[in-house]
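## retry 2 of 3
previous attempt timed out at serialization; input unchanged, resubmitting
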Amino acid sequence: MGKNRLQRGLNFMSHLKGVFPGFRPVWGIFNGGHDALSAFSSHHFVLWALPHGNARYKVTDRVVTDQGGSKGEYTGRFYAAWECMDKCDITSGCASFTYNPRVGHCHFKDEC
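## retry succeeded, writing output
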């Protein structure tokens, strides 16, 4: 319970800490109001959703100045960011990728 979303969110985090001893909830605020797509496209969500075990990739807020040359793309359907990561890992010469979370497309690059 709580009078506003922030209070309800904080109460829920406290509940999770009580149910799962040692659990450290991670949370953040994004600029998007009630737009779920903005939430799922936010820097916070991408950092939380990508597998942390793959230290090869770094999330940036903006496209880097020199992305390098193209090494292919996956645009035929919606791909999750982790799928793009896995596909880049098995694509010869792929050093990084750009990802559009609104449509789920990934473009592979030969530079980081």
